Amino acid sequence: MEDEDVAISNSSVFAQLMAVIVDRKANPPARSYTTSLFQGGVAKIGDKIIEEAKEVVEAGAEPTDTRQQHVVHEAADLIYHLFVLLGYCDIPLERLEAELQQRFGVSGLDEKAARSQGGASDE
Questions:
Q1: What predicted TM-score, i.e. pTM, was given to this entire model?
Q2: Which of 31, 40, 59, 121 is the most buried (most CB within 10 A)?
Q3: What is the per-residue burial (b if ≥16 Cβ within 10 Å, else e) of 30-59?
C-alpha cells in the first residue's frame, strides 16, 4: 500500500506542476522563470531540455555514493522543462499519460517498428 501512496502522491505532483505551468502561460508573471522560457519559445525551451538531458546522463555516470541524489535532482529539472514544452505546445498532461498508457503491454521494439512502418520519425 505504501508504494501505491507514493505513486498517487507523485502523480498529483506532476499534475500540480503542469497546472502551475499552464497558469504561468495564461497569466505570465513578470518575474517568472517559466514566463521567460515561454517568451523564448521552442528554441529556448529546447536548449534547456538538451542541457538538462545531458546533465542527467552525466549524473548517471557518477560514482555510486553521489549518483542517486544527483540523478533525481537532474531528472526533476528535465521533467520540469519537458512539461514547459508540453505547456507551450498546449498539450495537456493527460495526453502524455494516455500515450504512455497505450504502450503498456507492448514490446518497445515492436512499438518502435510499428512507428517506423507508419512513416513516423524516431526523432
A1: 0.79
A2: 59
A3: eeeebeebbeeeeebbeebbeebbebbeeb
